[in-house]
Amino acid sequence: MDHRIEEMEEYAILHHVPIMEHDGINFLLDYIKTHHIRRILELGTAIGYSAIRMCLVDPNITVTTIERDRKRYEKAICNIQKFGLENRITVLFQDAFDVELNDTFDLIFIDAAKSQYIKFFEKFEKNLSQNGVIVSDNLNFHGLVHTDEMALSRNVRGMVRKLNQYIDFLKSNSYYETTIYDIGDGVGISVRKDI
Question: Which residue has the higher pLDDT, 154 or 190?
């Protein structure tokens, strides 16, 4: 593996930055490759790890990614420059709810504040191309989604409840065909139906 990727993974562990688990990112990269995804919108850049990994799948891929934390944004810019991908990855330093985009994307990757997943989905689905897909990470939330709620702290309980509401929202959304994979920390693939 590229030592620059390993450096990012080590940095994430050391600084407690949540990045995709190996199984999850490999599953996502395979999906991007086999479905010939070209234009990607990512909510939650963190240090640029997944944006960089997605871009490296194919030289024709471009990523627009949104991050609101200044320190993470600056680290992402630095990492993207190390890979020479500044022409293919656009990082917006903003809160996702303040971003208005007119572009369309083949894939929208939601990996930001878990409590806001439904709002993110509803806000950005208008930017999805006709046969596009919305990918949601962390749907298992370290296995806690399937834990007895009373065994959890109040904050974690609230997060788990929000994620369960989001999972119900995905399953009942008749415009999308959603499959949830027990890979990494739980990955949801919501494919827009051709209506």
Answer: 190
Bridge-based pairing state of the strands 62-67 and 89-93: parallel
Which CATH number characterizes residue 137's domain? 3.40.50.150
Check: CB of residue 40 under 8 Å from CB of residue 107.
yes
Residues 124, 41: contact at Cβ < 8 Å?
A: yes
Cβ atoms 181, 27 nearer than 8 A: yes
Q: How confident is the model at residue 153 (pLDDT cuts 50, 70, 90)?
A: low
What is the model's pTM? 0.90
d(CA 7, CA 82): 11
The whole-angstrom separation of Cα 9 and Cα 53 is 12
Residue range of the domain that includes 112: 3-192
Q: What is the domain count for the chain?
A: 1
Indicate the SS3 state at residue 47.
coil
Asked if 68 and 4 touch (Cβ cutoff 8 Å), the reply is no
